[in-house]
């Protein structure tokens, strides 16, 4: 292992321990650094390096979640307003009310999303 890399790993471990100690102490960063004679700039420098290392070593993974069909919830955008509905559609258990002022693009988008959710 490269000597420089080994040295940096040791410093990272030391600062990780310092940061954990600061968090568990309940002190603010200013208070902690002042009481222990540490530089605030050094603290933030190592904090950012440790955070970056944690992100690089633990890439985030996304998982698609599908709610159970028996627990479907009603989604509303506000109070229910009855207006001159010309058509009521029921798609996948969702009530869609439209009239002549419903934008065609909006209706198309809603129908696509609802049908994909089935």
Task: Provide an overview of this structure.
This protein has 118 residues and is mainly alpha-helical. The chain is elongated and about 75 Å long. Strands 1-2 form a two-stranded antiparallel sheet. Strand 1 (87-91) and strand 2 form a beta hairpin. The protein has helices spanning 3-25, 29-36, 40-57, 104-117; strands at residues 87-91, 94-98. The mean pLDDT is 79. It contains four helices and two strands, in the order H-H-H-E-E-H. It is 53% helix and 8% strand. The longest helix has 23 residues, at 3-25.
The count of DSSP E runs of length 2 or more, i.e. the number of strands, is 2
- Overall morphology: elongated
Strand and helix order: HHHEEH
Report how far apart the termini are: 54 Å
Rg calc: 28 Å
Low-confidence residue ranges: none
In what range is the share of β-strand residues?
A: 5-15%
Adjacency order of strands in the biggest sheet = 1-2
Task: Label the structural class.
Answer: mainly alpha
Question: Averaged pLDDT, please?
Answer: 79
The largest sheet is: 2 strands, antiparallel
């Amino acid at each position: 292992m490269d000597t420089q890399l080994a040295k940096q790993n040791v410093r990272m471990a030391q600062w990780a321990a310092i940061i954990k100690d600061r968090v568990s102490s309940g002190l603010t960063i200013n208070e902690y650094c002042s009481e222990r004679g540490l530089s605030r700039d050094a603290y933030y420098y190592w904090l950012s390096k440790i955070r970056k290392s944690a992100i690089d070593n633990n890439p985030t993974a996304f998982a698609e979640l599908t709610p159970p069909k028996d627990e479907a919830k009603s989604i509303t955008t506000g109070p229910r307003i009855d207006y001159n509905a010309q058509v009521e559609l029921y798609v996948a258990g969702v009530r869609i009310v439209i009239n002549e002022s419903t934008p065609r693009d909006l209706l198309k988008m809603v129908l696509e999303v609802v049908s994909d959710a089935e």
